[in-house]
Amino acid sequence: MVVKSELKLIKNLQQKKYRNEYGLFVMEGKKAVEELLESGFKVYKLFSTGQELEGSGMYEVDRITIKELKQLSSLKNPNGILGVFYKNSISMVNSAGWMVALDSVQDPGNLGTIIRLCDWFGIETLICSKETVDCYNPKVLQATMGSIARVDIHYLDLGDFLESTGLPVFGTFMDGENIHYIELPRKRYFGFGK
Questions:
Q1: Would you say 169 and 192 are in contact if contact means Cβ atoms under 8 Å apart?
Q2: Are 65 and 49 spatial neighbours (Cβ–Cβ below 8 Å)?
Q3: Are residues 109 and 57 in the same domain?
């Protein structure tokens, strides 16, 4: 059974100010929760309506009813498992390899898809301007489908950061050169805007 204080906390985590205040976020769905567990995200609390999590013997899982899950969930049709995790605290930007920089991306679904694509293409570092939507927004997390576990995301003053690196920056443009026909340096940034 979910106690009233837990219900309030988890519902509040749908808002950025509370995610920042408590350093927590909510991930929903069996596959996505398992991805975070495997990647080493620190668990605050796990809830399940009866589905088993892989390696769940390592974690305490609170059994709840479907009605309770619907109270906790931000989804219209919750899917059985909900995890509350501590936000990652990544301090240093890993500048090895490819990086993607985003400027003022506001749509949560778009950011989630970009995170998923970074994961798919092996891009481990994503640099976001401070005006970009919060990566722990529930809609972003759903769109990542667990890929947030493998991409380091940093929110920085984008102009200052890119200038300080001294590395070449490539942008995406409809009338630009085809990326398949140009030779790119080993370390570089790809920039995308709103």
A1: no
A2: yes
A3: no
